[in-house]
Amino acid sequence: MIDLNISDDVRALLGEDLALVAPADLPPDPCIDCSKPFDDATATVSMVVLAGDGMVRVAFAHAACAPSGVRPLPDGYEPPAPDDRMTITALVVDHSGTELPVLVCESAVKAYRLHEQSTDDLVTDFLLDEGFTHVDQLHQAPPTVAEWIAVLFLDHVAPETDGLLILDPRGGIFFQGSLVLPDGWLQQADRHGQVVVYSGNAGLPGLDSDDARTAALAAAAQAGRLVGGRIGFTNAPATA
Ligand SMILES: [Zn+2]
């Protein structure tokens, strides 16, 4: 665990979402002020929030470089693109007795749009605009979102590592990267011709079993942190 400084104004701004953005380990991004990485496990780290234009971005600094606090967002700040540093976790999740193939998208970039009642991260904001819906339980799969598609490239990346492309209706790349498929995922995806996409902060990448990942996903849903939709699925033929 790192020693994290959080000022009162940061606490007031992020409120209940603070637990989701505060790292338990050293932040992956370098210090916002000196641009050097956090490489000492005993380091004291300051949480710095850049805020402006209804948007906030969470960053971190060495305690020696800056105190925790809220700063104005720099002019011309560009929100991260949806596929920027996103992780995807594949799971097979029981939805009221039906095993469905699930893809859970989590963005590593902590940038948020401020709403009156909540702070949605920018990826969530984008997906809601696209027709994805808030999810509060995993008993029932969320509605289909037309014209979105997930394309799987089996064994294209490396043996045992599959490539995945998720495209929006305009052909925009929402995600491209590799993933590891759990047992049964591909069979269920081929059978249904659809996969369930959930997006939000669920903390799955650090967990070491599918049971733990499924429990964390359910907890994230109950906490109102997920949006979801069912999208088309296709299994690209191998190009051997
Ligand atoms: Zn620094």
Question: Which features characterize this protein?
Answer:
240 residues; alpha/beta; 2 domains; eight-stranded mixed β-sheet; six-stranded mixed β-sheet; 17% helix; elongated; binds zinc ion
Sheet with most strands? 8 strands, mixed
**Backbone structural class:** alpha/beta
Output mean pLDDT. 83
Helix content: 10-25%
Can I get a quick summary?
The protein contains five helices and 14 strands. It has 240 residues and is of the alpha/beta class. The model has no long low-confidence stretch (mean pLDDT 83).
Overall description:
The structure is a single chain. The protein is of the alpha/beta class and about 240 residues long. The protein has 5 helices and 14 strands. The strands form 2 sheets. Strands 5, 6, 9, 10, 11, 12, 13 and 14 form an 8-stranded mixed beta sheet that branches. Strands 1, 2, 3, 4, 7 and 8 form a 6-stranded mixed beta sheet that branches. A hairpin with a 5-residue loop joins strand 11 and strand 12. The longest helix has 13 residues. The termini are far apart. The model has no long low-confidence stretch (mean pLDDT about 85). It binds zinc ion. The site of zinc ion has 7 residues, from strand 3.
